[in-house]
Amino acid sequence: MSDILIPFSEICQSLTTILRSYGLSSERAEACATLFAKADLDGVRSHGVNKFLKFIEFIRVGNVNPSNEPELEGSIGVFERWDGLLGVGNLNAEFAMSRAIKISEQFGIGCVALKNSNHWMRGGNFGWQAVDSGKIGICFTNTKPNMPAWGGSEPVLGNNPLVIAIPRKNGPVVLDMAMSQFAYGKLENYLRSNKKAPFPAGFDEDGNLINDPESILKNDMALPAGLWKGAGLSLVLDMLAATLSGGDSTHQVNRTGSEIGVSQVFLCFDPLKLRMDKWIDHTCDAIIENLKSSKVFEGQKIFYPGENVLNTRKKNKIQGIPIDKKVWNQILKELES
Amino acid sequence: MSDILIPFSEICQSLTTILRSYGLSSERAEACATLFAKADLDGVRSHGVNKFLKFIEFIRVGNVNPSNEPELEGSIGVFERWDGLLGVGNLNAEFAMSRAIKISEQFGIGCVALKNSNHWMRGGNFGWQAVDSGKIGICFTNTKPNMPAWGGSEPVLGNNPLVIAIPRKNGPVVLDMAMSQFAYGKLENYLRSNKKAPFPAGFDEDGNLINDPESILKNDMALPAGLWKGAGLSLVLDMLAATLSGGDSTHQVNRTGSEIGVSQVFLCFDPLKLRMDKWIDHTCDAIIENLKSSKVFEGQKIFYPGENVLNTRKKNKIQGIPIDKKVWNQILKELES
Fold it and tell me: How far is B48 from B34, CA to CA, in rounded Å?
């Protein structure tokens, strides 16, 4: 895999142009392109430009409706329920988080449940969106089945990513974790470079824990993070997303053979309205200071969730964003067509 | 370890009598005793009667103030912040969840943050409390440091239990999980019976993953569930608990050498007020039906979180609750003194 470095603005412009040709308005095309580019800017390459062509394909075959915007289904002060109308996943999610932010400014807490949406790509974007407006943001999504239950020999659970983001002047804390121990994108990288995962990553066909990515990838048998614990957490996140939104749950999301119509929840706390502004920074600073002062095993270093994002972002802004050359050439081709 | 079977009511009565002699009012003594007994009734023996004498010791040395009740610090509609005044942990938590339930009935969502509380014993009790009143309940607590950070060679993170409970007519779903892969109580059981944990359970002194409980127990080096993922989740739960409540974080909880003054969060959603009552049961039933119909590896069976509790509860109600004979004798001694 060889990379080229592309400036952030060039990625945004190129993707925007393509998205406009697929029926997104100028404004929505730019917002959608920016969310893709931000993933790469922050070093989350698995969920940025690398996923763009598949996303375009989803528009082409009608899985994603490029012009549909979320419709309000119901509202009761602190809580809103929206129908994503199978629109653009990352735009729907950004909109839902913006509503949760607004509601939290009024009531202290804001919650938005969204049904019939599509893959939000990089979930961390919406955590950063919350902390950039000074809010604590929590969001999660269900996915198609891609992990076994604990004891199960076929995929029935989603890896249902969970994002928890806490604002901090000296660097926000943004946890962005799927419920599988390793992302499938990571396992594909191991396979391509003929490596094994550094820890058990899934099950073979007899139910043994294995590090070898090949059969895990073939059978969608990724290991739930924390074994039975990640399996349990995945199940309840799916239940919360599907029941709060009134939308589909993991076992329904894949019924057409494609992952469409996911359910998501966005929850915000406004530290100002909740009168936590006097201590929130001090408390978080002290926790991180304590964490960073921990003794470590030889050669190890401790990072808090999100810490590396700011460094990567800074570097990529200066020197350009590394993009897979092959992928970029395909995007240039799409741009010309 | 040999057990005797004691009826639920006898456990409640005995513990109530002891608690009254330590200064709890009749009503509070009974409520506190019932929460201890419920843990054993539901089969969560690590956090019931087995912990009672240590709890009494905490009252005796002044770590727990038996007569203090929570004091309201601030309120803004959907959110309340309470000071636990170092009172009785399980009573404080039950009170906080009851407030979250009440608030959710008014606003759809209710959130209570509690500082300066004490060990809530079995967290699952408060999940069952929420579902018993028809609410979705989420709660979590921080603890003293008892797990290393990812890469760290000393405990700096708490195992910070997280409870997510979803009401369902055919059996609620109640996830009650600490962030360590194995509870210390479980590791002690393995050690006592000269067994190894069935999966890696912590680190040895060189940072290797090990199944042998001895050195893990000696050094408080339990494995975060999901490796770096459980470590990250533990950190953000501590941040949420400490910042929302304005209370202590994990690194402060143990400063006296005892685990006192923990921070907790209780969050409820009222399905009725949020107009989810039309579909919540149907959605959860379908998810569980799908889960239970999964193909399994040979000899395996799939359970949803909380499923076994109802069976155990039923059995224990009929035949009596298994209690460690030694522990029960100590309780009888305490009762006579």
Answer: 10
Which among B249, B284, B302 is the nearest to A152, CB-wise?
B302
CA-to-CA distance for A287 and A164, rounded, in angstroms?
Answer: 16
Residue B1 clears pLDDT 70, i.e. is over it: no
| Residue at A161 is within a domain | yes
Are A44 and A100 members of one domain? no
Domain co-membership, A53 together with A87: no
Tens of pLDDT along B219-278?
999 999 999 999 999 999 999 999 999 999 999 998 888 999 999 999 999 999 999 999
Looking at the fold, whether A74 and A115 belong to one and the same domain comes out as yes
Residues 84 through 123 of chain A touching chain B, CB cutoff 8 Å: 107-109, 111
Are residues B143 and B254 both part of a single domain?
yes
Same domain flag for A47 and A149: no
Residues of B catalogued as catalytic: 47
- Give the residue from chain A lying closest to B109, CA to CA: A78
Flag if A136 and B243 touch (Cβ within 8 Å).
yes
Q: Domain check: are B276 and B170 in the same one?
A: yes
Contact B298 A150 (CB under 8 A): no
- Nearest of A221, A224, A240 to residue A232 by alpha carbon: A224
Using CA atoms, how far apart are residues B105 and B96, in angstroms rounded to an integer?
14
Give the model's pLDDT for residue A255.
84
* Per-residue confidence (pLDDT) for residue A256, from 0 to 100: 87
Contact B177 A232 (CB under 8 A): yes
Mean pLDDT, chain B, integer: 97
Q: Which value, in Å, is the radius of gyration of the alpha carbons in chain A?
A: 20
- B207 and B315 co-located in one domain: no
CATH number, domain at A4?
1.10.1530.10
Using CB atoms, pick whichever of A79, A157, A232 lies closest to residue B109. A79
Residue B216 domain boundaries:
182-221
Residues A105/A273, Cβ–Cβ less than 8 Å: yes
Q: Which residues of B touch A296 (CB under 8 A)?
A: 151-153
Domain with A84 in it: what CATH number? 3.30.1370.60
Percent over 70 (pLDDT), chain B: 100
Residue A129 lies in a domain: yes
A16 and A153 in a common domain: no
Residue A310 lies in a domain: no
Is the Cβ of A251 closer than 8 Å to some Cβ of chain B? yes
How high is the pLDDT of residue B63? 96
Closest partner residue to B294 (CB to CB) among A156, A279, A286 is A156
Render pLDDT for B141-164 as a digit per residue (tens, 0 to 9): 999 999 999 999 999 999 999 999
Contact assignment for A240 to B76 by CB distance below 8 Å: no
Split into its structural domains, chain B has a count of 3
A136·B181 Cβ contact <8 A: no
Tens of pLDDT, residue by residue over A169-224, are 999 999 999 999 998 888 988 998 899 999 999 999 999 999 999 989 999 999 99
Rounded-to-10 torsion of CA A238, A242, A247, A251: 40
- Distance separating alpha carbons of residues B103 and B110, to the nearest angstrom: 5
Assigned domain for A92 exists: yes
| Distance, C-alpha B37 to centroid of its chain | 13
CATH code, domain with B190: 3.30.60.50
Instruction: Verify whether the Cβ–Cβ distance A151 to B301 is below 8 Å.
Output: yes
pTM over 0.90: yes
CA distance A85 to chain B (A): 19
**Residues lower than pLDDT 50 in chain A:** none
Output the CA–CA distances (angstroms, integers) from residue B233 to A15, A225, B230, B236, in the order listed: 34, 11, 5, 5
B183 touches chain A (CB under 8 A): no
